[in-house]
Every structure is written in structure tokens, then in C-alpha cells.
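In full, the data.
>
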Amino acid sequence: MDLHNLDQIERATRFGRAELARAGCTVLFIAGILIYAGIHHAGLPNSYLLISAAAVGGYMAMNIGANDVANNVGPAVGSRALTLSGAIAIAAIFESTGALVAGGDVVGTIKGDIIDPALIGSADEFIWLMLGALLAGGIWLNIATALGAPVSTTHAVVGGVLGAGIAAGGWDVTNWHTVGAIVASWVISPVLGGVIAAGFLYAIKRTITYQTDMVAAATRVVPILIGIMAWAFTTYLVLKGLKAIWKVGLPVATGIGLVSAVTVYLAVRAVIGRTSRALDNSKSAVNSLFTVPLIFAAALLSFAHGANDVANAIGPLAAINDAVLNSGIANQASIPSWVMVIGALGISLGLALYGPKLIRTVGSEITELDQMRAFCIAMAASITVIVATHLGLPVSSTHIAVGAVFGVGFLREYIKVTYAGIVAEIRGHHLGQDHAVVEDFLDRFERSAVADKGRMLKELKKRAEADGNGITKSERKSLRKQYRRDLVKRSAVLRIVAAWVVTVPIAALLGALIYFTIRGMMLP
């Protein structure tokens, strides 16, 4: 066998070795949990259920890291503000820190009043219910990750609790008002995220990239945008990320955010001014000013996610722990430190082993991102949660972030189609004229400010109406089809939206099936 054949074999087996290594790390992590839980909880009634739940909780945490965390760092990676390895390191550190330092001290065992625990027959049935819900959520997240679809961790767990709860206590056990609010969030979350992200991107284009002197415009506007980011993230962290250790209302959190915004604005204004002197008058140069803010955004979003969503996702494990220790069902259950450690370590490991696939999906497979667009997505993720919290609207951080990516992509599509139509109008009006004249007009149009572009187009349209030249409806339709193929991947959009819609029903079905399986094994 020659060296060329050996090299081919080496390449062919590389993927299998990587998958085997990931599977081995997963098995070692879950085995470690089993050993720890077995040593520290041996002798308790139903200790075997608690030990099993601990292993399933670790599995669930790994799937959170593989699927949910991508929303926080995916845009930064897709815009090349962060490398994949750098994003994984930052997310792992700040997700773990958020979970351990500011994770919820108390979590509702019924997962936001999804079910009424009073209608559950016994503590044993409640434990089986929560174990089934936890495993159902983890399995669905695993499937969604394999399909490359970012879905809501909270919805997966809620679906599992809903299905297992109905299996254990019947249809009357469910709070259908809460379920309806969750269904509403499928629309509210991505629409709010998309609108806010698109609004920020359009504002940046109007105030910076559509200006004749982009560097001068960026010197004025970027410090203001960073100040707004500081306000949004400080308010977001105080309201959501730190609520377990310091609970304040929206007015106080907004005031703290405002102080942070003014401080950051004054600090970065001089830095941006010095940095911009070395930049050339191009969009790529201006983009570089958003790199450092994006890194901070990825870290802060990860911290808030670790503090807020992760505690909720491992709530069923905390509920099982409380039910085993107290031999009863409580409406609220404290989260012990060992449960939070399992969550934090599992998220970090799942992100490192399986997270890159979803990071690429969010960062590059839906639409092409640069630093400006990724900045807008990060802003939308924080501001949407603030607005929704104030209005009492149910939202999903996953749906918000991915909806923001959709919003940025569809705005790009609209702008590109509109601009292509304008260029076609210009070329159509100049039919028969010298090529150099047409290109000179296009060059002047491209370099003009927004107001000058509008004036030039008005004059052009008046002349076009007089001589009958212009772009036809069929030509505009052809342009739209072309940019739909190029700017927003419809296949990715449909795949992700379909996964959102079926998350609660599939998790519920899995939860019911797993509950009946456990119940069948446990009953004499």
C-alpha cells in the first residue's frame, strides 16, 4: 500500500475518530455524574431515581450547550469578530460564571405554572413526571442539534413537563393559558427581534455607510451606538442575569443602565476618535470599529443566558432532588450547588464538543453577517427582552436572536433588490449613450450622500417618464428571485421555523411516552 492510499484512509477515518472522541467525552462526563451522585446520595429513599436524574440533567445541560448557546456567539463568529475557538472559550467561561454566580436560587418546579402539582397523585409519580420531562427535553434538543436547527431550551422543557404532566394527571392538570402564551411567543419573539435588528441596521446605514465621509460619520455615531449597547446590556443584566442575587424593578435597572451608557460613551468617544484617524473611507474599515463591542456583547449575553435560562432548564432536576429529600411535592424547589455545577460543566462541555455546528448555522448559513449586522443582532437580543419583560410578553431568547438574523437578512434583501432596481433604471435611461457616461453617473450616485441620491433619482425619474425608459415589473421580479437565492437561505429559514413549531408538541409526546415507560417499570 503506497503513501497516497494511506493518506486517503487517514482522511476517511478522521470524521469517525472525532465523533468517537466526542462520544467518549460524553460518556465519561455522565459516568462521573453517576459516580458522584451515587456516593453522595446513597441510602436515600428513591436515591436511584435521583442518581438517574442527575445523569439525565448532565445530558440535558450538554444539549443546552450544543444548541442554545450558539445564539449568543454565532453572529460574532459569522462576522469574524471572533474565531470559533475564541467564541467557544468566551461562551463556556461566561455561561458557567452566570450559572454559578447569578443562577436562580429558587425555581418553580412546575415550570412556570404549566401543570398543577396538586393533581399529581404522589411524590413518586411527580419524580417520574419530572424525570420524563427532563429526558424528553434533552432528546429533542439532541435531535434539533443534529438537524442544525436552533430551538428554545425553555420550550423543550415546558413541552416535556406538559406531556408528562398530562400523562400523570390528565388534561385538567394543565394551565392552558400559560401554554397559549408560549404558543404566542413563537410569533412575538422572532418578530420583535427581527424588527429591532432591522431598525438598528437601517439606522446605521443611513447615518454611517450611506454618508459620503463614512469615517467622520462613524466617529460621531459609533460612540453613541456603543453607549446604547451599554444601556441595553446593563439593564438586561440587572433585570435578568442578576435577578437571583439582586432583584430590582425596570425603572431602577433603566437608571443604572443610563449611568453605564453615559460612562461608556465618554470613555469610548476619545478612543474611537483616535482609532478612526488611521482608517480609510470604506465600509470594511468602519466595520472594524464594531469588533470589540461584539466581543463584549457575546460575553454578556452568555453570562445572562447562564444566569437565567440554564437555571430554568435544570429546574426538573432540582424538583426531583427536592421531592426525594422531602418525600413530597413543593411548589418551589431550591437549586443545590451540585445541580448548578452539573449545569455549568455540562453546558461548557456540550458547547465545546457539539456547539460548532449550530454556531455556523446561526452565524453564516441563514445570511452573510459582518460586524455591523452582528452588532444589530446583539442589540435586538437585549432590547427585545427588556421590552417584553416590561410589557409582560412571553418571549424566547433563542427565537429573538434567530429572528434578529432573519430581520437583518430580509432588510439586506429588500435594500439590494431596491438598489439593483435603481441601477437598472439608470442603465435603462442611458440606453444608447456612451458606456463611460453611464459608469460615471453610477460612480457619482454610489459616492453620494442619501439626500443627494434622492435628488438624482427624482431628476432621473422625471426624464424616464418623459422618454418611457425604465425597469419592467417582470425584471423587478427576476431581481427579487435572484437576491432571495443569494441573501437569505430559504431552506434554513423553513427548517428552523418548522423546528420551532414542533418543539413543544414533540417534547410533550416524548415526555408522555417516557413517563408511561418509567411508570410501567416502577409499578409492581
About this structure: The chain is about 80% helix and 0% strand. The radius of gyration is 26 Å. The mean pLDDT is 81.
